[in-house]
Amino acid sequence: MKHLLNRPIITVIAGYWAMFWMMNALDKIFARQDLGFIVWYGNHRVEKFTMYFDRLGYGPDSVWATLMFAGIVEAAVACMFLWALYKIAKNQPGAIRLNDRAIAASIIVFFGFAVFDVVVGDRAELLEHSTYVGVLLVSYLAGAIEGVFMHLRNTQSTVEPAE
């Protein structure tokens, strides 16, 4: 676990996006369900998707299928970030590359959401999903900058002091 502190920015980025995607997935999977210990209200996705699909001429069965599909995709992206965190914690090679791929997968998912937003005419959701793409790009840049600073720090620590 001490290796998580070696890359604090990447660790926070991967942790945030893992939580974000997992909570989003659960919000779709448990939408409006009583789980016994809590009623999962979340976003009003069922109502929104019912409205969208009515516009498109699809029945209510399509709503649940679409929400489940989106939830599974989001859970998969969350698992990519969790796997990257695990690899960072164990100081395994490829952790940063996996984090970068999870960011790319996130951008692809948001691109898909944006296309859906255009098709159903929800400009507010389009703006939200487009904003998340920008935040993901900033996340990528922050991780890349951390790598540059680490390289500079390691280079400076191996240089002999001038006399």
Question: Could you characterize the architecture of this molecule?
Answer:
The protein is mainly alpha-helical. Helix 1 (8-29) packs antiparallel against helix 3. The two termini are 39 Å apart. The chain has helices at 8-29, 45-56, 60-89, 95-120, 123-158; strands at 33-34, 39-40. Helices cover 77% and strands 2% of the residues. The radius of gyration is 20 Å and the shape is elongated.
What's the SSE blueprint?
Blueprint: H1 8-29, E1 33-34, E2 39-40, H2 45-56, H3 60-89, H4 95-120, H5 123-158
Antiparallel strand pairs: 1-2
Helix pairs in contact: 1-3, 2-3, 3-4, 4-5
Short description:
This protein has 163 residues and is mainly α.
Oligomer state of the chains in this structure: single chain
Low-confidence stretches: none
Helix content: over 70%
Class computed from helices, strands and strand pairing: mainly alpha
- The topology string of helices and strands comes to HEEHHHH
The main pleated sheet reads as:
2 strands, antiparallel
Taken together, the total number of domains comes to: 1
Span between N and C termini? 39 Å
As a whole number of angstroms, the C-alpha radius of gyration is: 20 Å
Estimated share of beta-strand residues: under 5%
- Going across the biggest sheet, name each strand in turn: 1-2
Shape: elongated
Tell how many strands the DSSP assignment holds: 2
Average of the residue pLDDT scores: 89
Protein name: Transmembrane protein
Keywords: Membrane, Transmembrane, Transmembrane helix
Organism: Ahrensia marina
